Amino acid sequence: MSLETLARPDDEAYGRLLAEVERRYGILIPPERDAAVRQSLDDSCSTLGLSDVATMVERLVVNDVHAVDHVIRAATVNHTGFLREPAAFEVILDEVIPTLEPHRDVRIWSAAASTGEEIYTLAMLAAERVGMDELDRRWHFLGTDIDSEAVGAAEAGVYTQERLDALPERVRRAYFRPATRGQYVIHDRIRALCTFRRLNLLARPLPFRHPFDVVLCRNVLYYFAEARQRAVLESLYRATANRGWLLVGASDAIEHLGTSWIRRSPIAYRRSML
Ligand SMILES: C[S@@+](CC[C@H](N)C(=O)[O-])C[C@H]1O[C@@H](n2cnc3c(N)ncnc32)[C@H](O)[C@@H]1O
Q: What pLDDT digit, counting tens, does each position of 134-169 carry?
């Protein structure tokens, strides 16, 4: 018998953790990631001063925000970046912006915003396209994520030089200033346009008063089972303005799910055209 097939004392607790993570956050952890997730959970237990995975599960079910952050980070890869998958930003600049009604507020939501690069990219590119004064007048950018530490990092808006490398030189110069330890901080005017909140995509109803013109839901759906993906997409549909847009990630195939969204391209969808 190999070492991997030996039962571990915390197997039962790990099984409960998988079930809670799926039920609460929709995230399915595939068996091939078990070893890495268990290692990461062991590290998290040491960091948080918890004796074992069973104690971690207890913290999870009472919504202890630190435990939730650690578990989410063990279960997902919160990889992101400025200008990641540029085709989505091209759709917004070239197809969405020309269809927006003049003088009406514009609301854009990054629904799994991680550390903020996605929504800041959009705010910077929109500033380049329509001008900062126009953004100040009527554009609102929201980034939400379940991981509160990621939300805190997004709010701080401080990034290393390497993270900025994906951006054109002009954009780097215009929208960042040097901070301490070789890092860069997002320009105050861009920062002021962006709001960040902790939000579980499974929350019902979603807590918004105004519908969004554009929703980005990229590189998160693939963590969810198909029924959950469908439910999340329908919930985003309800949160979107008539004729509003949804952008998904390049590896988030959603066409086969048969949702209310109307397909414009593999990454771009639209709410009813009525
Ligand atoms: C791979 S990152 C994607 C970041 C960004 N959208 C992009 O494409 O670069 C996935 C993010 O989804 C978040 N996430 C996972 N489950 C979530 C849930 N149930 N509700 C909200 N965010 C969730 C994770 O915390 C992580 O930051």
A: 999 999 999 999 999 999 999 999 999 999 999 999
Mean pLDDT of the chain: 94
Are both 118 and 71 inside the same structural domain? no
pTM: 0.94
Atom of ligand 1 nearest to the CA of 25: 19
Q: Name every protein residue with a CB atom under 6 angstroms from any ligand 1 atom.
A: 25-27, 72, 76-80, 84, 112, 114, 118, 145-147, 150, 200-202, 218-220, 223, 249
Say yes or no: 96 and 63 in one domain. Answer: no
CATH of the domain at 29: 1.10.155
**246 in the same domain as 136:** yes
- pLDDT tens digits, one per residue of 51-82: 999 999 999 999 999 999 999 999 998 799 99
- Enclosing domain of residue 46: 3-75
CA distances to 45, 73, 74, 165, 216 from 78, rounded to whole Å, are 20, 7, 9, 19, 15
Q: Whose CA is nearest to atom 9 of ligand 1?
A: 80
For residue 209, pLDDT over 90 is answered with: yes
